[in-house]
Amino acid sequence: MAYRLSDIDRKNITAFEKDYSRTSLKSILLTQGSIRGLSNFEIVFGYPLAAIAGRNGSGKSTVLALAACAYHSSPKGWGLAGRKYPYYRFSDFFVQTHDEVAVEGVEVLYGLLYDKWKPTEELPTGQGLGYQRRKKNHGGKWNDYAGRLRRPVAFFGIDRVVPPSERSVLKNQKNYISYAAGKKSDVEEKTRTSVSRILGIDYQDFEVRGGGSHKLPVVQRKTCKYSGFNMGAGEQALFALFSVIHSAVSSTLFVIDEIELGLHEAAQRAVIAELKKIAFEKGHQFIFTTHSGAVLDSLALEARFFLESTSAGTQVIRSE
Fold first, then answer.
1. pLDDT band at residue 105 under the 50/70/90 scheme
2. Alpha-carbon span 123 to 126, nearest angstrom
């Protein structure tokens, strides 16, 4: 059955294309060189959610890394807890051993929808689609991080589904993670509501204990209270993800690897429905990889992208 645009889809498409205050990532074009086999590559976004699909080794994770590096932020800007900087650098993702081929001779062109460009002949009002380049010459470094447009970015890798019981740092701190004091925050209530809808579970209470990178979710279900140490991987990953989504400032870019990890199909569809709603309300943008048909079927054509390799090794994008 063909996908039919819903009311929230239409609102999201219009907001993405017309609300330049979001500083949305419109396109990524690899204009020179190759990265992990990705070459002659362009992707153009038309919706605040984008699912990147394709075979293993097709370059999906590389696209996520390029997206995460599109923006800068001030040292005191919003960012994920536990990180040294609130922004990402190419060296956060592209790491080589001494005998691997270094990433160099590369140029990336980012298309950005923005409302405060310096007026030009092409953009007389300073509003609309403009471009910024990032490049790394042979033997050199990536150019001018501080010149990137400002926008908060949060990257979630697959380590988010590792249960707290398998994280030695949390197990060692279990007796020192304090109870939350006082009234629950608005973030905790919104997170409880989102995860309840996604999993179809009536959580009566949710709180986050600890701080920094030593955070532990604790929930109440009827008479049973339990922490992340006793949650399933998908359950605790949802609380971790949506706690950040609801605490982020407006118009944050979220980059998520394999969004469906740990979730059954009904929950995967519900996650997409929840993200559509939040994207419209808060101006967030979500770019993620997936191997899930349920995730793709839950999205408008404008939000589905497939990576393919030609006989020449070029990665191309097509939407189905």
1. confident
2. 5
Cα 288 to the chain's mean position, in Å? 6
Q: Would you tell me how many other CB atoms lie within 10 Å of the CB of residue 121?
A: 5
User: C-alpha 14: how far from its chain's center?
Assistant: 21
Q: What are phi and psi of 103, to 5 degrees?
A: -80, 110
Q: Residue 309: pLDDT above 80?
A: no
d(CA 320, CA 301): 6
Residue 181: predicted pLDDT = 47
Closest among 243, 205, 209, 208 to 224, alpha carbons compared:
205
Cα–Cα nearest to 115, from 103, 107, 123: 123
Cβ 43 vs Cβ 263: under 8 Å: no
Helix-strand-coil split of the chain, %, nearest 5: 30, 25, 40
Q: What is the DSSP string of 107-175?
A: EEEEEEEES-PPP-SS-TTS-EEEEEEEEE-TT--B--GGGSPB--EEEE-GGGGS-GGG-HHHHHTTT
DSSP 118: P
208 closest CA partner among 232, 186, 234: 186
Cβ-in-10-Å burial (0-12, 13-18, 19+) of 203 comes to: middle
Instruction: Provide the phi-psi class of 37: left if phi over 0, else alpha when psi is between -120 and 50, else beta.
Output: left
Helix, strand, or coil (residue 92): helix
> H or E element: which one contains 315?
strand 315-318
The pLDDT tens digits of the residues spanning 43-52 come to: 999 999 999 9
Separation of alpha carbons 297 and 308, rounded Å = 19
Say what the pLDDT of residue 171 is.
Answer: 46
Q: Look up the pTM and report it.
A: 0.91
Provide the H-helix boundaries in 217-307: 233-247, 265-282, 293-297
Cβ atoms 262, 234 nearer than 8 A:
yes
**Strand 153-156 to strand 253-256: parallel, antiparallel, or no bridges (unpaired)?**
parallel
- The position carrying tokens 């469906």 is 260
Count of CB atoms situated within 10 Å of the CB of 247: 18
- The confidence score (pLDDT) of residue 82 equals 77
